[in-house]
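name: query_chain
kind: protein
chains: 1
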Amino acid sequence: MKNLLNTNSLTRLLIEPEYSLLRTLLLQSAILAISIGIFFDAPDKLNLSTDRILGWFSYHLFLNCLVYVNKNLLFPRFLAKNKMADYLISVVIFTVFALCIMVILQELFYDIAVTRQQPSPIAIFFSITSSLFAIVLFLTGISALQLFKQWLINNHRIHELQLATSRIQQHFLKSQINPHFLFNMINNANILVDDDPITASMILKKFEDILQYQFSETKNALVPLLNDIKFLEDYLELEKLRRDQCDFSLKREGNFDSITVPPLLFVHFVENAVKHSSDRKGSYVNMEFKVVNRKLYFFCENSKPTTPSKRVIGGLGLENIKRRLALLYHKKHQLHIADTDQRYTVTLYLDLQ
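structure:
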């Protein structure tokens, strides 16, 4: 299915922005094919009178109104947000209104135009009934097509998100759990085994927790935010053993009990802060998590060395995390990065509602 979503021409036609003009032309062609029937009094009798042309023009605009009100207003506001009851009520109201318009158009430009007589009550009844079914079928078809399109878009986004998540995880594993990092942690524990077995045991335990989190819990789509913070705390505790002169702090504010986030969402920023903060006395890495009304604020700031590093801060990893945030929190996140000579600051806002 994933390959189909990537390569299928119909899928691309329905969801890719560059095909929007073609989609509009196809939709207008379909509406034209439906509305052009008003010119025929019978299958073999074409009527091109002025009244009939005006009737076609009005009918064509009416069908466009049906399509675009449902497509651009009712569907995204209600059905796309699983507000089925609100959507059905809106459709009923809209259908009644549309039915009245259709009856008026038919009376003005069809029966009277052809017979010059007022249609009978039976004719009006059947006209209303057939028009009602036509409108319902038309709206149902439009909604079904929009649901199918939304399904394709969601599956495409999920696929892109999985790729972005995989790149983030691979990037972190390659940059952090490398032989140098492993050697330092194991060597520190080995040195302290005889002199300070308690600290040595703590190092190995935190190291075990870090590895376990990366290789097990990160397989889940969402994890408790507290787990992700615990992972960052363990990581910083191990870094403190290697960098005595750098001060690390992590603050929390708010209720985190029910908050879940994708795994390893913040690790890139912390990794960058640790990697690029200076080793001299007075250097620091400060982090803060704050939850207010289902809104999460993340702040990370680190000092920078007086001698500029040859490595570029951010790079490919930053682009990956930006892409991941766009997929996960589309229009529900803000990322601000400030890079000065003395410090590097990241501020991330997430709307979790």
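note: The first helix runs from residue 2 to 7.
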